[in-house]
Amino acid sequence: MVCGGFACSKNCLCALNLLYTLVSLLLIGIAAWGIGFGLISSLRVVGVVIAVGIFLFLIALVGLIGAVKHHQVLLFFYMIILLLVFIVQFSVSCACLALNQEQQGQLLEVGWNNTASARNDIQRNLNCCGFRSFNPNDTCPASCAKSGHPCSPCAPIIGEYAGEVLRFVGGIGLFFSFTEILGVWLTYRYRNQKDPRANPSAFL
């Protein structure tokens, strides 16, 4: 039997929002774990990850409450917000998958020049100094600089992982963007279904 009834739509929507809740808590936990173990010292990066996690958690909470109570207004706002998130996330995911090596290098260099704390984390964790070259007058937290040994530039090392990371992020983004459009469709259908346990005259 095809899943098209009121109860099935409600259960699917609740399950989808529980998945979003778990993902949001995972994002917040990863950010806390990274800063707790000293892997990430950039408050900007941690703040962005936590903000995305909280935003996703709030969206999932609105969708979960709307699905459980069959609340028309909450479901409407949830559907609109999810559609906007889908458009943004789908565009960003396609951009990540479409970047060539030259564009990746330009993007990495812009990020390198604009985030000092993240730059120090990269140099310390990858044991490299400078993006394409290293100025001896600059400070570098890498162990090779502290020991007096010559340090490799970070650009080639980062470039080895940049393509894989962008493909991974783009793939994950595309996967979740399709779950979001599925959520929009489920919400639209669920809003227009009557609760069999409610008074039909009370349905809006």
From TrEMBL:
Please report the name of this protein according to its UniProt entry: Tetraspanin 13
**Transmembrane segments in this chain: where?**
12-40, 46-68, 75-100, 168-188
Instruction: Supply the PANTHER family for this chain.
Output: TETRASPANIN, TETRASPANIN-13
Q: What GO terms fall under cellular component here?
A: plasma membrane
The protein's matches in Pfam families, at most eight in alphabetical order, are given as: Tetraspanin (PF00335)
Q: Does the keyword Protein biosynthesis apply?
A: no
Offer one example of a GO biological process linked to this entry: regulation of calcium ion transmembrane transport
Q: Could you confirm whether the keyword Lipoprotein appears in this record?
A: no
Compartments where found: Membrane
Q: Which domain of life is it from?
A: Eukaryota
Which keywords accompany this UniProt record?
Answer: Membrane, Transmembrane, Transmembrane helix
Tell me what topology the record assigns in the membrane. Multi-pass membrane protein
Task: Report which gene this protein is encoded by.
Answer: TSPAN13
What GO molecular functions are on record for this protein? calcium channel regulator activity
